[in-house]
Automatic annotation (TrEMBL):
Domain Core-binding (CB): residue ranges: 21-106
Name of the protein in its database record: Tyrosine-type recombinase/integrase
Matches recorded under InterPro entries: CB, DNA_brk_join_enz, Integrase-like_cat_sf, Integrase_catalytic, Integrase_recombinase_N, Integrase_SAM-like_N, Tyrosine_recombinase_XerCD
Keywords of the record: DNA integration, DNA recombination, DNA-binding
SUPFAM superfamilies tied to this protein: DNA breaking-rejoining enzymes (SSF56349)
Originating organism: Paracraurococcus lichenis
Family matches, as PROSITE patterns: CB, TYR_RECOMBINASE
Pfam families, sorted: Phage_int_SAM_1, Phage_integrase
């Protein structure tokens, strides 16, 4: 069940019944958490899904009628249930969603204590990321196979090149404007808006510089400073629109380009960030500098993208001569 919370001058959003039953102040605080407490849209979506599922379970399965009645036992039971159908990272993220929301409700004096604070999630230790990575030869093969006689080809090569040579996340790349590619000290630079609203600026590798110049000049968007850098292609026109390229479309493009290049590895948007970091480290780069270039707060995160050990493992496996 769910009820509407009616706010003056606003459409009435649907609230979980347990939240609506706690009153208008609780409902407003609940909505504020997602609107003001979380800035990343992907995190907001994941947290909303987790909270909606938990509160629906509380009402339907645990017989909980109000927010004040939610106990650590309820949170622990739901988390245990999640471990049966979801991976450890997903369960830990869902528990984090509960902790953060209940903290928000406590500070807003909606509930007295946080029922998720003492609940422990499943153990999870990661030494290496799961993102598929291309070796340098495959990455070069992919870039060289893109037909740059079209606007789409110029755009796709520039986008993939940006992710490889600047370690940019796809989310940061797709919110760039044309003005975020600029000249400084006679060198082209890129400005990225990374997670948490952090602004990250990097000089361009000479190859990326060539790709971006070709894209901006070849498509005629160089003068549209406030327009999106990476755009959709108009249906039937083959020309760029002024609509930003959605992330799902970028993924489809990457898969299509990989297939056309004869690359069997099931790559995605995040592949190129890991590919660039691994190539940098393989050519003598330091982990500390890689972390700074990738805008990582810790080198431990950067290590997850380092796949040099994969090559060592493959070499060692070939020693098994039977």
């Amino acid at each position: 069940m769910a009820h509407d919370l009616i706010l003056p001058g606003r459409p009435s959003p649907i609230l979980p019944a347990i939240v609506a039953a706690a009153g208008e102040r609780a409902g407003l605080r609940f909505l504020e958490f997602f609107a003001a407490g979380i800035h990343n849209p992907n995190t907001r979506r994941a947290y909303r899904q987790a909270m909606t599922a938990f509160l629906a379970w509380c009402e339907a399965e645990a017989g909980v009628a109000s927010l004040n009645a939610v106990q650590p036992l309820h949170v622990a039971a739901w988390i245990e249930l999640q471990t049966q159908s979801h991976s450890a990272p997903t369960v830990k993220q869902r528990l984090a969603a509960l902790r953060h929301l209940f903290d928000w409700l406590v500070t807003g004096q909606v509930i007295p204590t946080n029922p998720a604070a003492a609940v422990r999630g499943p153990r999870h230790s990661v030494q290496k990321g799961k993102t598929p990575v291309l070796d340098a030869a495959e990455a070069r093969q992919l870039l060289d196979c893109i037909d740059t006689s079209t606007s789409a080809g110029l755009r796709d090569r520039a986008l993939i090149g940006l992710m490889i040579y600047s370690f940019a996340r796809i989310g940061a790349a797709l919110v760039m404007r044309v003005e975020d590619v600029y000249t400084q000290n006679r060198r082209l630079w890129v400005r990225l808006q990374e997670k948490g609203g952090k602004r990250h600026e990097m000089p361009c590798h000479h190859t990326l510089e060539a790709y971006l110049h070709a894209y901006l000049e070849g498509t005629g968007i160089a003068g549209d400073a406030k327009g999106p850098l990476f755009r959709t292609i108009g249906r039937g026109t083959g020309r760029l629109t002024r609509t930003p390229l959605p992330q799902a479309n970028a993924y489809t493009m990457v898969r299509r380009r990989a297939e056309a290049a004869g690359i069997a590895t099931r790559i995605g948007n995040h592949t190129f960030r890991a590919t660039g970091i691994t190539a940098y480290l393989s050519n003598g780069g330091t982990l500390e500098n890689a972390a700074a270039m990738a805008n990582h707060a810790s080198t431990r995160t950067t290590q997850l993208y380092d796949r040099r050990r994969d090559e060592i493992s493959l070499d060692e496996v070939e020693r098994i001569r039977v």
